[in-house]
Design brief:
The chain has 4 helices and 4 strands, in the order βαβαααββ. By secondary structure, it is of the alpha+beta class. The chain is elongated.
């Protein structure tokens, strides 16, 4: 039947992730990209939202994870997002998650630190 991708790009959330006490206390914005490889089923022909992965609901899952429990590592945050999305919908075969942290505690000039994690259902 085939597959297709659904992408959520540059989702912004406020969270308190990081190793340092200041990161937990102050928090910051995190940016997330999600690429879901989805089993096509009938969605490509029947034009029904019931046949696909509802990306509004997927966004809500990502938001809940990023704004919920604090994690020391953005690697863990990305892995937890991928796991949750695959567990939520059996149509999702693979998820790639990128998490960007713009305010990193590094003595240098950079836009952000980013990790990418792939989760396979």
């Amino acid at each position: 039947m085939g597959t297709y991708t659904i992408t959520l790009k540059n989702c912004a959330f406020f969270g308190r992730h990081g190793v340092l006490d200041e990161e937990a206390r102050l928090g910051q914005r995190f940016f997330v990209d999600v690429v879901m490889m989805v089993e096509a089923e009938d969605a490509l022909t029947n034009d029904s939202v019931a046949s696909t992965v509802h990306y509004g609901e997927a966004y809500a899952i990502v938001e809940q994870i990023v704004t919920g429990t604090r994690r020391n590592l953005i690697e863990t945050l990305a892995k937890d997002i991928g796991k949750a999305l695959c567990a939520w919908s059996p149509q999702i075969r693979r998820v790639e998650v990128a998490v960007r942290k713009p305010s990193v505690p590094i003595a240098g000039i950079l836009d952000y630190a980013e990790v990418r994690v792939e989760h396979v259902a």
